[in-house]
Specification:
heterodimer; A: mainly beta; 22-stranded antiparallel beta barrel; five-stranded mixed β-sheet; B: Serine Threonine Protein Phosphatase 5, Tetratricopeptide repeat; 8% strand
């Protein structure tokens, strides 16, 4: 009955889904797969045999008997028998915060997982699990989606389909992933149906918004100061070169006015009046008005789940719509997920099929207005778009006598004209078959087919500056006034397409046997994976949107540039083609044995082979292993400590690997098109390294799990770890006369250690409840071997390491303040205060440098409190990062003169101007011409170092939940509301700089979100 | 039973896994195994990025103070022949003149080593051509480096003077040391002579980034001229002109007055210097005030090379011989004619010298306005030849070498002078500053003796 009920429920819903799918122009493969599923569904439907409900189901049932299980992507392990270090983020915690993507939801809730935001770009999330363990290889954790490595854009996973996330931190947990597990593993498990569960429908809708970015947060040299500086530079003749350059670079309106004045073309009064008009203009006003906008995200999801005695299913549809923080940027996502499993022959045979389809569209129609002076205007008072010079104004006024296309650049029009879209579609089809041969032995075959496509179409119509500029550059005007245009009139379309097909096949034997007090669990398997990627690009000139026609161009011959008058420019044909193949063949096995549930012993082994280019076969096979032990002390009969009802220790050791695809054992060359004479070219991309091996990371983990008080109201775990990385890739400096500048080889080793503490306390239970969760991590590391000899201090400044110092440390010049006589920045040379910057660069006296440890937090964690009363709960999370430094951007005179007016340039008014100023400023005095070694010294000195330590009010969340059990009037099973503010603000920071250590000057706006979730 | 099948499948996998894992990860990547691939390696940009540092020190141009101040450190310091041109900078902007040529030599060594390991005929024309080209290019780059970082070739002291590190293998760990000037030149000649045997006679019609016998001879003529070995220089100039005779008639450049890109017909080997874009062709940079008046009225070079500033009337550069914005650093027949004329003049064949000069100049003057030089009208033939060399080889990456060579003869010595904002700078003949310093980091890594300036 149950089964019938559920089948009847999901079928109509299916039809609803399929119409949606057709609307999104799905490919035929999808339809094919769908029919496959449907036939399985019918098979289950027609099965007559009655279920034996007393029998345990044979699936990898995720949560049996309420036992918490963690997934390694290869198997599920009951948490209580896990010897390794796992962090489980369950559905509640995962859904506590709202985001479009999966990874952001892990911030501040996983012990030992650090979000590195030092590059200040919110789009590049850089993760470290525990300690850094590599120098030059990929340092990001491996991501597993359900059973296999995830090949594709993480943004394509709809977080609403995620059931839980496990983070595998030590060797016993991660080694089963072998050569790619060196940085830890994040396993994302998606939702599945459940046997014997009535159909449940869940509908959720969320909305989030973040305030308009404030351009005034960016340090910015004021217009008036900038104009004064330009006037000064003009007098020095700085612009003579630009004004006379054959490539006709733009000069600012002030420079142009000054030049006109110098030539006597305008009067002194007119020029002064015109200049004064500019003084009141600040381009940030226009940016705020025309370029930035409030970002708005909507996320809606509908899912259906349930199961009978022999089948289970989960189906969902998700829709995201986002308006970005800049005008013209938008991101939409549609995701569909369906999985279904059927048992045959008393559930001895289980067939599970699944499909995830995602389609996204990213609008990149927000070209940044390229302004080169702070008083640029995007629009006049009436809102009409204004032009910004991209060439010398005099050149533009005289060239072509009106026969060329308009050559003005108007950023606001560009915003309106932009038509640049990235579309992705991603399909994953899973087929898993499991057959229980004996009660204790099961054979499984898993297959995944992934097919993803990213298509970029950038249409730059003839109205865009890019196209007009290109057409004009190539144009030539004959003596009779006839204009010839090698690049035809019309738009330019760039198409880029990346298509991958990933196939994973795994065969596995699962063994599980219990007898008396013994329990043995084991598996052995092999996995074959193949990822083929094809990328191609093409460009069409003279494109006419209406007629979809384009013209051929001559990409062979050189043309005379209208700008420089040199016959040396060629029309780019814009074609590219690449084929990539990534193959792995792996064998693995693991086993665990436990006695009386008191002692558990585990071991695992994996061998990986890959087609890593040029590596000799013997190096392709890298055996990696782990072993672990757990002792549940509190289960010992003699254990009597009543206030500590649960106590166990875990110990594990093992190795994982890390891959670096940028090096090869053989000399490798890359094909690079053709030379000026049309002959094909190869370029050397890799010098040979015959001694190449993979990096290995060995991890030792010792942990204590406990719970205090009879009720277990206080629980937690304390873990110590030590990591040793061997054969790490490092770059040796070579004499340039060898033809190479650096040589990458397995020349370094590291050692790291740390502590992860997590602590949960239920301070109050009952109607009024209060919970506290504390996470604290400490991590340090140091280089233990570095078989590379740095040449001099400049080597350390450009990233050389020293044995005994951290991998995350960096070097700066020691700072001796400004010279009281002339305001020059001073450092040390052989221990003496010095201004000889050239000698400092070439010095070999390490004491002239200051070592900063480190640029990554050494201590970090969070404190999360949840207070609730009946249906209402209020939760807030405070995070902290302590013990690290970041580099501030400082004034650089070369850049300032070159037209940079943001960041460090804003310090210009604070510069040293007269003796005595050195007491209250460290901004060097103005020198002309700029001395690049002086700028370079100052920009790499101790003066840039800012303490990064801070405490952040990460978020606050108010939730209201009503359950049918307690509110019988409710037409639903469950109703939830939430409102949340994320990134509320900094509570404390060590630096006096205006910068947020994590986010820089921008992106500090609080994000407000709210949502509703209904479960039927 | 079932287990056994499974094990069998796994074993099958193991057997075939090696071929499965042999798939090429990126089809645009290649492990070099064929002659064609090595050929494609030398098709690359070996012909670009010759050092231009020496051009910044020559007397073809001058820079007003205000413009000089706005230029990069390399130009600023090289312009005034500063002792330390690096001033603590180590970016590619200041080290490219050293790094890039050695990068090219690395390519040549990779090709030469790779060719040795190839199976198949090592005597085929195709094989010999690729090998010959790699040998020639290695010699060419060694020569360019020697003329910047090696001490000038002085016949009396060449055995003691410091040349440059010579690279004959692609091994990155090989020890680097400076050879003597004599050994440097001997190796350049040895590579070139081997190349001369292997290369085809004429490649000019197709591809001027490929060397031919004519190119090697033109090069050897220049090398021997640098060594003041006038007999050999003359012999190779003769041999070169026996393969290829073609002078560009500047009358044909009218009305465009610009050189073709990527080459013109008198080029025998096309190489461009790098990193001077926006230097010579910039309107803020002017032609040397002693050079410009040397050109006669109907000398078309005046209009092809230079342009007068609309407001000041001062001449600046209009077009580089390369047709690009960077100076030409290759070999062309006008130079070969001038080499031969100089050798003939020095060896006493004045008529032969004047004949070469006349042949060249008839292509340079407006038709009908050139009156061939005679012994009487020319005066001192050698002086006449050198004057024409000065006028013809403008920003051609030969002037620095000529100054290093000619200054050794007090009768032909020149003192270079610069003036910036009231400060005068001088480069005396035979000054140690005619040898540029090696990038400091490079000298430190390999403990090379630095050039004392």
């Amino acid at each position: 009955m149950n089964k019938l009920y559920s089948m009847a429920h999901y079928c109509p819903n299916f039809r609803l889904k399929i119409t949606k799918i057709k609307q999104i122009k799905s490919n035929s493969l999808f339809a094919l797969c769908f029919s496959l599923f449907n036939s399985f569904g019918l098979a289950a439907y027609s099965q007559e045999k009655k279920p034996d409900t007393t029998r345990k189901t044979l699936t990898d049932s995720v949560f049996q008997l309420n036992e918490v299980q963690v997934s390694t992507g290869i198997q599920y392990i009951p948490k209580e028998r896990a010897t390794g270090s796992f962090v489980l983020v369950d559905s509640t915690l995962f859904n506590r915060s709202f985001s479009i993507d999966v990874t952001s939801r892990l911030e501040g809730v996983v012990s030992g997982l650090r979000f590195n935001r030092q590059d200040m770009n919110p789009k590049n999330v850089d993760l470290t699990i525990r300690s850094t363990s590599t120098i030059r290889s990929d340092d990001q954790p491996l991501i597993i989606l359900d059973n296999f490595e995830y090949n594709g854009d993480l943004k394509n996973i709809n977080p609403n389909d995620v059931l839980q996330v496990s983070v595998l931190k030590d060797a016993a947990a991660a080694s089963i992933w072998g050569a790619r597990a060196g940085n830890g593993v994040i396993v994302i498990t998606t939702k599945q149906g459940k046997y014997n569960q009535p159909t449940r429908v869940s509908l959720s809708s969320n909305l989030a918004t973040k305030g308009k970015q404030n351009p005034f947060n960016t340090p910015w040299l004021s217009t008036s100061d900038y104009i004064d500086m330009e006037t000064y530079l003009f007098k020095q003749g700085y612009y003579t070169s630009a004004l006379g350059n054959i490539s006709k670079p733009p000069v600012s309106p002030i420079v142009w006015l000054l030049n006109e004045r110098k030539k006597g073309l305008i009067s002194a009064a007119d020029s002064a009046a015109a200049i004064d008009q500019y003084r009141g203009i600040d381009a940030r006003n226009d940016f705020r008005q025309y370029y930035f906008q409030r970002s708005i995200s909507q996320q809606h999801a509908l899912s259906l789940t349930g199961g009978g005695a022999f089948n289970q299913y989960y189906a969902s549809v998700g829709w995201d719509k986002n308006q970005g923080g800049t005008v013209g940027s938008a991101y939409d996502r549609l995701s569909l997920s369906f999985n279904h499993s059927i048992g045959f022959f008393d559930n001895k045979l289980e067939v599970k099929t699944g499909i995830i389809y995602t389609k996204t569209q990213d609008q990149l129609n927000d070209p940044y207005p390229a302004i080169t002076y702070p008083y640029a205007q995007l629009a006049d008072a009436e809102g009409n778009s204004l032009s910004i010079a991209r060439y010398n104004p005099g050149f533009l006024d005289t060239i072509g006598q009106g026969r060329l296309l308009d050559w003005g650049y108007r950023p606001l029009e560009e915003l309106a004209l932009a038509d640049n879209t990235v579309k992705t579609s991603d399909l994953k089809v899973n087929l898993n078959i499991g057959y229980r041969l004996f009660e204790w032995l099961k054979v499984k075959a898993l297959y995944q087919y992934g097919d993803g496509q990213t298509t970029t179409r950038n249409y730059q119509s003839q109205e865009t500056f890019y196209t007009r500029d290109l057409i004009n550059q190539f144009s030539s005007i004959a003596s009779n006034g006839q204009v010839s245009r090698p690049i035809p009139l019309g738009g330019i379309v760039d198409l880029k397409n990346t298509h991958y097909i990933a196939q994973h096949l795994r065969g596995q034997l699962d063994l599980q046997h219990r007898w008396q007090a013994h329990e043995l669990q084991g598996l052995i398997g092999a996995e074959l994976s193949n990822l083929n990627t094809q990328a191609n690009g093409s460009r069409f000139y003279g494109y006419n949107e209406g007629q979809t026609s384009s013209s051929n161009v001559d990409a062979v011959n050189a043309y005379t540039s209208m700008v420089t008058g040199r016959k040396n420019i060629r029309i780019a044909n814009g074609q590219s083609l690449r084929y990539l193949t990534d193959r792995f063949l792996s064998f693995y096995a693991n086993a665990s044995y436990s006695y009386m549930k008191r002692y558990t012993l585990s071991g695992s082994m994996r061998k990986d082979g890959s087609n890593l280019f040029g590596v000799a076969t013997n190096q392709k096979w890298s055996p990696l292993w782990s072993t672990g032990f757990k002792w549940d002390i509190s289960k010992e009969p003699i254990y009597q400590i009543s206030w500590l009802p649960s106590l166990s220790i875990r110990l594990s050791y093992g190795t994982s690997g890390n891959i670096n695809k940028t090096v090869s054992a053989y000399l490798v060359a890359r094909s690079l098109g053709s030379n000026n004479y049309g002959l094909p070219i190869l370029n050397i991309s890799n010098p040979p390294n015959p001694d190449l091996t993979w990096e290995t990371v060995a991890t030792l983990n010792a942990a204590l799990d406990f719970s205090v008080l009879q009720s277990g109201r206080i629980s937690g775990s304390l873990e110590f770890y030590q990591r040793k990385g061997r054969n790490l890739m490092a770059d040796a400096e070579l004499p340039a006369a060898s033809g190479l500048l650096t040589y990458r080889g397995n020349t370094a080793s590291m050692s790291g250690k740390g502590v992860d503490l997590s602590f949960n306390s239920q301070n109050l239970v009952g109607a009024l409840h209060w919970q506290t969760a504390v996470l604290y991590s400490y991590t340090t590391n140091r280089v233990t071997e570095y078989r590379v000899t740095p040449t001099n201090n400049s080597s350390y400044l450009s990233g050389a390491y020293q044995v005994g110092k951290s991998l995350d440390g960096f070097y700066v010049y020691r700072w001796a303040g400004l010279d009281p006589q002339n305001g020059n920045p001073r450092g040390y040379l052989n221990g003496q205060v010095s201004e000889d910057y050239a000698a400092m660069v070439n010095s070999t006296d390490l004491s002239d440098l200051h070592y900063v440890d480190s640029h990554r937090p050494v201590h970090y964690g969070s404190i999360r409190n949840t207070v609730g009363w009946q249906h209402i709960s209020l939760s807030f999370n405070v995070t902290f990062k302590i013990g690290y430094y970041f580099g501030n951007s400082l004034l650089n005179y070369s850049n300032l003169y070159g037209g940079s007016f943001t960041g460090g340039a804003a310090d210009f008014p604070m510069r040293w101007q007269k003796p005595g100023d050195e007491a209250h400023t460290q901004v060097p005095s103005l020198v002309y011409p700029a001395v690049s070694s002086r700028d370079n010294f100052y920009n790499n000195s101790e003066a840039i170092v800012e303490k990064g330590d801070h405490i952040r009010f990460q978020d606050i969340r108010l939730a209201y939940e009503i359950i049918k059990k307690t509110a019988t009037w409710l037409p639903f099973r469950n109703l939830q509301f939430f409102a949340m503010a994320a990134n509320v603000g900094l509570i404390w920071k060590a630096t006096k700089s205006r910068m947020d250590p994590d986010y820089g000057y921008q992106y500090t706006q609080t994000r407000f979100s709210g949502g509703i979730k209904i479960e039927l | 039973m079932n287990i056994r099948i499974n094990v069998l499948i796994l074993c099958g996998c193991l057997v075939s896994c090696n071929s499965y894992l042999d798939a090429v990860p990126d089809r645009s990547l290649a492990i070099l195994t064929t002659l064609e691939q090595y050929e494609q390696l030398i098709n690359g940009d070996l012909y670009a990025q010759a050092p231009a540092l020496q051009e910044l020190g020559i007397d073809d141009y001058y820079v007003p103070f205000s413009v000089w101040q706005s230029k990069d450190i390399r130009l600023q310091n090289a312009y005034i022949w500063k002792a330390d041109i690096y001033d603590g900078n180590s970016g590619s902007g200041v080290t490219q003149d050293w790094n890039a040529p050695y990068g090219k030599i690395y390519y040549c060594n990779v090709v030469l080593e790779g060719l040795e390991s190839l199976s198949g005929s090592h005597e085929s024309a195709a094989f010999r051509e690729v090998k010959g080209h790699a040998l020639f290019f290695r010699a060419y780059q060694h020569y360019l480096l020697q003329e910047v970082y090696g001490q000038p070739y002085r016949p009396a002291t060449a055995n003691m003077d410091l040349g440059i590190p010579l690279k004959y293998t692609s091994l990155p760990t090989e020890r680097i040391f400076r050879s003597t000037v004599a050994k440097t030149f001997a190796s350049i000649i040895l590579d070139s002579e081997k190349a001369l045997e292997m290369l085809p006679e004429d490649y000019q019609a197709v591809n001027k980034v490929r060397a031919s016998k004519a190119a090697v001879c033109a090069f050897l003529s220049r090398v021997y001229l640098t060594m003041q070995n006038y007999q050999q220089s003359l012999a190779y100039a003769d041999q070169c002109l026996s393969y290829y005779v073609q002078l560009l008639d500047y009358n044909q450049l009218y009305p465009d007055y610009r050189f073709g890109y990527p080459d013109n017909q008198e080029v025998v080997f096309s190489v461009n210097a790098s990193g001077t874009s926006g230097v010579f062709l910039n309107t803020g940079i002017f032609v040397d005030s002693l050079l410009y008046p040397l050109y006669a009225d109907h000398d078309l070079r005046k209009q092809v090379f230079f342009l007068q500033d609309a407001t000041t009337g001062l001449p600046h550069f209009k077009s580089m011989y390369s047709g690009d914005s960077n100076p030409f650093a290759g070999l062309a027949l006008d130079e070969v004619y001038l080499n031969r004329a100089e050798c003939r003049a020095r060896l006493g064949d004045e008529d032969g010298a004047l004949a070469d000069l006349n042949e060249l100049l008839i292509h340079r003057y407006e038709t009908g306005y050139y009156f061939p030089l005679t012994r009487e009208s020319a005066g001192n033939t050698l002086q006449a030849v050198l004057k024409e060399r000065r006028k013809e080889m403008v920003v051609r990456c030969t002037r620095w070498t000529d100054l290093r060579r000619l200054n050794q003869d007090p009768a032909l010595a020149t003192t270079l002078r610069r003036s910036l904002n009231g400060t005068d700078y001088e480069l005396l003949p035979n000054s140690p500053r005619y040898t540029y310093p090696i990038p400091p980091k490079e000298a430190a890594i390999s403990q090379l003796p630095q050039n004392q300036r």
